[in-house]
Amino acid sequence: MGGISLTGEPDFMIHGVYQFTLFGQELWITTTTIGLLIISLFILILAIIANRHLRKASEVPDTIQNIVELAAEMLEKMIGSVMGKNGGRFFNYIGTIFLFILFCNIGGLFGLRTPTADFGVTFTLGIFTFLIVNYQGIKNRKFRHFTSLFEPFPILFPINLIGEIANPVSLSLRLFGNMVSGVILMGLWYGMMPIFVKIGIPAFLHAYCDLFSGAIQTYVFCMLTMVYVNDKME
Amino acid sequence: MNGISGQDFILGCSAIGAGLAMIAGIGPGIGQGIAAGHAAAAVGRNPGAKSDITSTMLLGQAVAETTGLYGFAVAAILMFLKPFS
């Protein structure tokens, strides 16, 4: 192939690790599941450390207290800028999915297969957003939640309905598409390039695909979730 | 056409289709460029509002990117999952 070594096939698919049967249904533990477990444990350990430290919080903060306060204030500012006075009620949920998606996206740096590059994960997050949006809509606007589908003209009902249903799909597909494009790019680079460009150059690709793109998509996912929920809060 | 089996023909057509699907990248490129250009003009006019402008720009660009990602999803399915062969 003239300088291009095809020693390893490019590898960016989800792999099954362990197979088991539940109620006659064949199920798999995949690389995504393992990544999710590792990241959940990591976030849990971080939370325990932060909790231990904030129990004996002091007037003059030490290093860990400083970092935790900085992160919490940043999240609070971000949520408050969109949701205003309703922000406090959604701080827990938005903060949780923000940390979760952020660490999932960065997971590609640490050798995991990025868990958010699996449509099962992102679509679950999109479904959560859909359920919260509709719950808040019915709770706050009662019957008007359904009649607003017929505005401004009744003939626009099908378009409004599709618009409502397309929200979680586009939300999840956006995150999935961005992360999976990074995973495919890195897989092709590691699988098909000659050995001497595999040193050093991937650092820039990782910085763009995992860190930059991951952080932007995390921010966008949380912002859009808040915008959708806030639309139904009036 | 001698020596080309049906499988190979379908594979080649899938590759062409994947390439054509990525034409969808033109639209988001233009849209994101326009958004970034207007954001730069806005920062030039009012440097104090830089953080607000940046977050609004990023949100708009991410929404504009969605159509390009639909094209990318189609291309990736054609290339790697091979639904027609």
TrEMBL record, chain B:
Residues 16-78 form the V-ATPase proteolipid subunit C-like domain. The gene is atpE. It comes from the Bacteria. The chain crosses the membrane at residues 63-81. GO terms for cellular component: plasma membrane; proton-transporting ATP synthase complex; proton-transporting two-sector ATPase complex, proton-transporting domain. The record marks 65 as: Reversibly protonated during proton transport. Belongs to the ATPase C chain family. It is found in: Cell membrane; Membrane. This is ATP synthase subunit c. F(1)F(0) ATP synthase produces ATP from ADP in the presence of a proton or sodium gradient. F-type ATPases consist of two structural domains, F(1) containing the extramembraneous catalytic core and F(0) containing the membrane proton channel, linked together by a central stalk and a peripheral stalk. During catalysis, ATP synthesis in the catalytic domain of F(1) is coupled via a rotary mechanism of the central stalk subunits to proton translocation. The keyword Cell membrane applies. Keywords: ATP synthesis, Cell membrane, CF(0), Hydrogen ion transport, Ion transport, Lipid-binding, Membrane, Transmembrane, Transmembrane helix, Transport. One of its GO terms (molecular function) is proton-transporting ATP synthase activity, rotational mechanism. It holds the Pfam family ATP-synt_C. It comes from Hungatella effluvii. The keyword Ribonucleoprotein does not apply. It is a multi-pass membrane protein.
